[in-house]
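Section 3.1: Structural characterization of target chains.
Under the original work plan, the team committed to producing a structural model for every single-chain target entering the pipeline before any wet-lab resources were allocated. The record below documents one such target. The sequence was received from the expression subgroup and is listed exactly as submitted; it comprises 366 residues.
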Amino acid sequence: PPRHHDDSDTWVVIVSTSRFWYNYRHASNALSIYHTVKRLGVPDDHIVLMMAEGYACDPRNMYPASVFNDKQRSVDVYGSGIELDYRGLEVTPASLLQVLTGRHHQHVPESKRLRSGPNSRVLIYATGHGGESFFKFQDSEVISARDIADVFEQMYQQHRYGELLFIVDTCHAESLLSDIDSPNIIGVASSARHEDSYSVELSREIGVYMIDSFTARVLDFMDKIDEATPPSSRDPTLHDLLRFLSNRWALRSQPVVRATTLLRDLSAVNVRDFFGSSPTLKFADGGSSGAQSSTPSPALAASAMRARVQAAVPDVPVKPLEAAHQTHRDAVPQQRLHFEFSDRFLRAATMTLVCVAATIVASALS
């Protein structure tokens, strides 16, 4: 384990790699995790937030400047309190590798850098689309499982972490962990090698799924942690979190853990080691000190979270779950087809107008 670990030496990298409106849930995933770690005390200067698309300003968003993680719209996870470090076309495999290894151009500001050290605990959370042994960026580039293993080895050689927790919410997520062999790394995948990951909270009003089931389940667990209570040996551990995530009925996929290189037992790893930092200190005059969130946590949307937990109990009949499963698999391609058709129509209309204009100009010149 890292020696002389300082509770304030926790660093977080959150990356959502998807574009296009029907991937709204990936931004919601990332922003929900962002607010959770902020609520538990990780300050913004220890968080690198990377989002390929924010969706808050998408013209199809009927709630401008807002992103929600449930169909009741309980909490706006976009809001005014986020500090977005990489956005849009800045989010690429190259930029992620630069963040993790620290190999930046000299003019890149400190706010865009991961300044972890040999005793740091680092949480890396990634959400987007993936296949066997690859993870997509912007629907045009990929990073491979071998690339991920190599960058973690570089981080180890450069003394950029003491312990590292890598959580990936995507289809076939286990395959992204298979090549990792650097010391003191815990890998958590939302799905097995040959499985898809699934979404929940379909909003028929907005027309998209609001969040992925794995990340929603993580939020349900983290909601039980009171940020006002100092960390203690009674806090939940990573073992508790992973046992909570093992409810296949709730996720419709099988989460996988790889911690073969970790030098201590998961039951000894407090979840706040990676999801939190120094607790807020209360003074007699009512003031406070320490890192704390300036925005409400999505996990505090109690009614929405309770509804998710109730919907995920193991004794739910099998047939309704199978129906929901099939509805999800069918709905997303239909949404994709609709938006791809719209994009093709716009491109065709644009080209037609260009051709007409060119013909008019040519006639005028002749």
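The two ends are 79 Å apart (CA to CA).
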